[in-house]
Amino acid sequence: MSMGFADDLSEPGMLYLRPILSTIPKGNIASIRYPDQAPGLFLYKESDIPGTKSMEIYGEQMPVLSGSEVHYEGEAICLILGEAPEVLEEAEKQIIIDYESNYTLDDFDHPRQEQFYEETILKRGSMEKAFAAAHQIVEGEYLQQDPIRDAMAPIGALAVEKEGVLEIKVSSLWPEQVKKSVSEVLDIPQTMIRIKPVNPFPTDGEKIMLPSLIAVWAALGCRFTGRAVKVAWDVPPAPLPFLRSPRSRIAFQTALDEKGNVVGENIDASIDLGAFSFLSKEMLARLVIGIAGSRYTPNTLIRARGVKTSLSPTRLRCGFGIIPGLFSREVHEARIAQLLGKDPADRKLEAADKKRIPTGGSLKKRSDRLLIEQVCSASDFHRKHAAYQLMKKRPAIPGRGGIFRGIGIASGFTGDGFTAKPAGREPWSVSVLLDKNDKLTIQTRAGAFPGSVKALWKHRAGEILGINPELIDIDPIWQDLGGNGPLVCGQRLSVTTALVEQCCNAIKRQRFNVPLPINVRKNFRAPSQAVWDREKLKGTPFHRLTWGAMVVEVDLDPFSWQPSIRGIWCAIDCGNVYDRKEASSAVRTAITRSLRRCTNGDLLISRRAREAGIFEETEQLSMYPIEISFFENKTAQPSGVAQIPGALFPSAFVSAVSQATGIYLDTLPITPELIHSFMAKREEE
Q1: How far apart are CA 200 and CA 97, in angstroms?
Q2: Which residues pair with 280 in a beta bridge?
Q3: Which positions ≥6 away from 106 have C-beta within 8 Å?
Q4: What is the pLDDT of residue 186?
Q5: What is the pLDDT of residue 617?
Q6: Could you tell me if residue 583 is left (phi over 0), alpha (psi between -120 and 50 degrees) or otherwise beta?
Q7: Cα-Cα-Cα-Cα dihedral of 427, 178, 225, 240, to 10°?
Q8: CA atoms of 620 and 540, how far apart (whole Å)
Q9: Where would a tag sit more exposed on the chain, N or C end, judged by fewer CB atoms within 10 A?
Q10: pLDDT lower than 70: segments of the chain
């Protein structure tokens, strides 16, 4: 199947669909004046929905159309369909909505008790006793704002009825949820729905929840009109839901003994989930896991809350809440090292040999020591960090030139799969057929995977069986995969790849002992043993961990306060790496997105790129000296690689800019204006 992009979809005689979005953040709809419905123009409201009026995921719901109440700016009020986009533009101008908006907004900075969705607590030991006996207490508050509200690629869906089956093509990383949502809203059985994912990449989280909503709109239009319906944007409008990254505020109190060892912590975290939340328990669990980091502390209290606000629902970024959690942890660790006058890498190495992780799980092996040593050696971290500390004692004069340079380090782990057992625990399955003509067919639920992953399967199968990869077919299955979560959880990709390899090895063993054709099927079911208690946040949270370490070195222009990347060094342990080129590409892509988030979308132009006249983001990244190392273990199953670079880069970058400026920075995104305000404040003091 061709994995095209959503805005390229078409069907003969199709209609175009646009949602009419609210222009206020909260209130009631007093009245709506609709245009005359000319031939070929259709309009549908919440009252026209035949099934449930909301999308539901694991008990959390959001209206498909707003009805009489508006919950956030950008909420869909009604749907209009027409023969051409121009018809919809003219009709939209004639729709007049009168609002009653005299409502108190739900604010993130000063939330009321009724705004809390969920609360997740990790408690161990006696935090009170630890603080009472502490030699020193280090405090810090770490903020991540909402820097970017856009999509990385076209988003859309096309619905058409063929032979009694509603076929939906959609750019989604979670096609099973798309089918479930369409079934419930249209009140038709899932057997009457076929989901065909089109290319969902690249993505930064907007391809998880938003496609289900768009697919429901397209499916409603198709069932109402009996015609194919397309809803798609090359550049989606900013007010749409699930395009906004969540804001977070995480406050640390860390108790140290006389030797600088951490003996207790009290941490309070809040994350803005918007007017409606999905997977909030999962996000908060991962937020706490990220906050806890990889250093085991005997006395700990971490309290994390999801906050309801009058903003649009947030996107479910890769890694969910683990990224803001790990950011706060790593920047706080750098702060402690600075106050103690220690090399932050040395401080990390002191804790790297412990087999216990903060949630209490005991690991047979931790690879963070090797990874930290690798990036320190490659970047010359110890020498540079000491040299840049000395440079801060002879600061350059702002606006008069000089060198502002810094280097930062971060390390930690991310994981594959949900922290909760998926509902039903349906197995993953892969079937591989070698026919009498030595043609190989791999059958799997592969529709949501990008072409590069399927090319990897072909290459690996051809390598095992000695078959030309061009003669291998991938035959996608369109049935439900089950409640195993979106592709960004990592587990589906790593497990499916391993099953393909297992099937091919089984065929290799039988190939010359039994007659062709040979058909081998392998299943994987998530382990049932209790290795993790999500309610108590105790044990090992993921079925596989990916460890990583990263160093970022920056220059700071003393005239514009614009940071420039001098170098990025990244070392990752993700088990068996099937394709280093593809894995390196995934790491670079994750770093690119982190650059955008860390700088409010402003491009970080390196000196080499500026001198070469290169201003495109992807071309700029190639100008940065990025070194990527993989600690490969051929005997270990692969784990996801996409989460860890995005989790580590923000804190390493902030630590580097903090050293360059001599200012304790604790906020993302970092902009020249923010740096200038901090520098000016320091001069006043």
Answers
A1: 34
A2: none
A3: 26, 112, 115, 275, 308, 309, 310
A4: 97
A5: 46
A6: alpha
A7: -170
A8: 39
A9: C
A10: 1-7, 146-153, 200-205, 318-319, 360-364, 393-402, 420-428, 445-452, 476-494, 525-531, 578, 601-624, 634-638, 684-685
Q: What is the pLDDT of residue 491?
A: 55
Across-strand partners of 637?
none
pLDDT of residue 572: 93
Residue 616 has a pLDDT of: 47
Q: What is the CA radius of gyration of the chain?
A: 26
User: Kind and range of the H or E element at 363?
Assistant: none
DSSP sequence for 14-50: PEEEEEEEPSSSSEEEEEEEPPP--TT-EEE-GGG-S
pLDDT at res. 424: 43
CA distances from 502 to 495, 498, 600 (A): 10, 6, 44
Instruction: Give the three-state DSSP class for 170.
Output: strand
The reported pLDDT for the residue numbered 387 is: 94
Query: How far apart, in Å, are the Cα atoms of 547 and each of 55, 204, 524, 589, 632?
Result: 35, 21, 23, 18, 12
Who contacts 536 (Cβ-Cβ below 8 Å, separation ≥6)?
none
- Please tell me the distance from the alpha carbon of residue 450 to that of residue 577, in angstroms, as a whole number: 17
Taking CA atoms, 327 is separated from 64, 142, 321, 413, in Å, by 34, 8, 10, 12
Strands (E), 362-507: 404-415, 428-434, 440-444, 472-476
Could you read off the pLDDT of 157-189 as tens digits, one per residue? 999 999 899 999 998 878 888 999 999 999 999
User: Taking the CB of residue 308, how many other CB atoms lie within 10 A of it?
Assistant: 21
pLDDT at 86: 87
**The residue count for the chain:** 685
Distance, CA of 277 to CA of 57 (rounded, Å): 10
Residue 236 near residue 247 (C-beta atoms within 8 A): no
Cα(300)–Cα(129) distance, integer angstroms: 11
Alpha-carbon separation of residue 105 from 114, 275, 276, 308, 558 (angstroms) = 13, 10, 14, 10, 41
Please calculate the CA angle 497-501-505 and round it to the nearest 5 degrees: 170
Do the beta carbons of residue 55 and residue 64 sit within 8 Å? yes
> What confidence score (pLDDT) does residue 272 get?
93
Between CA 13 and CA 227 the distance in angstroms is: 7
315-332: pLDDT as tens digits: 887 667 888 999 999 999
> Token pair of 433, please?
């057929």
Q: Measured in whole angstroms, how far is the alpha carbon of residue 308 from the centre of its chain? A: 20
Element containing residue 529 per DSSP (H, E)? none
